[in-house]
Amino acid sequence: MRPKGVPEGVLAAGLPLLLATALVLGTAACGSRLPESDFEHRTTPAPQSTAPLRVGIVTSATSPVGGSAFTGPRDGAKAYFDRLNARGGIDGRPVEVRTCDDGGSGVGDNECVHRLVDEDKVVALVATTALDYAGASRVSAAGVPDIGGQPIGAAYDTYPHLYGIYGSLAPREGTPGWGGKLYGGTEVYRYFKHVQGARTAAVISYNQSASAAYARLVTRGLKAEGYQVVTEQVDFALPNFRAAAADLKDQGADLVFDALDTHGNAQLCKAMDDVGAKVIAKVTNVQNWTSTVPEDYKDAPRCRNALWATGSSRNYEDTSDAAVRAFRDATKGLPTHSQWQLEGWAAAMWFTDAAKSCAKTGVTRACVDRFMNRGAPYTAGGLLIPVSSERLPTPPKTRRTCVSVARWEDGRGWVSQGDMNSDCFEVPQLSYEP
């Protein structure tokens, strides 16, 4: 399916080490009448390993989209593992993080997968954020669990052993979704219709496959909720945002959705201010839910204060929540903060909980995968709207889905709107092709 605290004992109370105990066998008393055969099968537990647990993080850090566009999940995951290691690791074993920049290309992604999976023998991938996840089939074939990755493409709805940060209900047998179709709900559009009374919406996208596919889903969802929809597509390399802004103004759009990166959003907002386009809300996606809004949108003060972000995770600025405070405390040294960092932190937590479940049998790819594949919803201690990774033979027609919403306000930052576990709607699930 497409996207629209801290676990007990982790970080809040520390990570106690499980100390190996020696089995002390007393000598038999003189004259023992027990047969010697009773002592032939005594075993001594193997000493607990203290070797590092190696995980990999693939990131399109130097992609054509920009140097910092995809690094948030990586930085959040690394921050979690740094704090985890400072508190003893997982049952006394530190987590060793191996990172790889795939450059945003399929060739580079395959090289990263080969290095991490085949050469470094990582037990799992965590917080994958790849513009072109060409190596996904190779990860799946190797049985390596990929935990909490960002579903930029369709990989997390296609292959087994891959678990996106928002989950999936698809069969994942080698083809995307169900028969090549993915599904998404209309909860975001229902929310804005219900709360803001919006009726006309514009959808802006690039002429790039992932962006265009997401925009098609947004358009269908808006129409299903009764909106009048204005669609605008700009060239990925040479976008004309001014023309798009002028058109949405002329057509009276009071709500704007996009499938753009942060740079594109900033350009669109500036163009909207330049042409005098006033909207109730400029709604962006989780990738643009960052602390860099004042700098990114410095030339668009009106549009900047109309920014709303929606997603499936708790607002990284909501420090009234203990799990968010833990994330912010551990990342206070980072120059910026973002929702993707928080989701990378949650992905690392997910792996940690999976690895801890393997204490008795040993932390292996197969054991971690069993935890991930057990079908139970996961919340990362309340940081995520419950994530399900099931395999339904047919897609659901409707689903009760919740949404996390925040609005930017100068001087306050991202301000949560309502509660993500209460802003829930029973909405249709609409198909689209990736």
From TrEMBL:
UniProt record similarity statement: Belongs to the leucine-binding protein family.
Key word Signal present: yes
PROSITE patterns listed in its UniProt record: PROKAR_LIPOPROTEIN (PS51257)
Matches recorded under InterPro entries: Leu-bd, Peripla_BP_I
Alphabetical keyword list: Signal
Name assigned to this protein: Branched-chain amino acid ABC transporter substrate-binding protein
Pfam families hit by this protein: Peripla_BP_6
Domain Leucine-binding protein, chain residue ranges per copy: 52-409
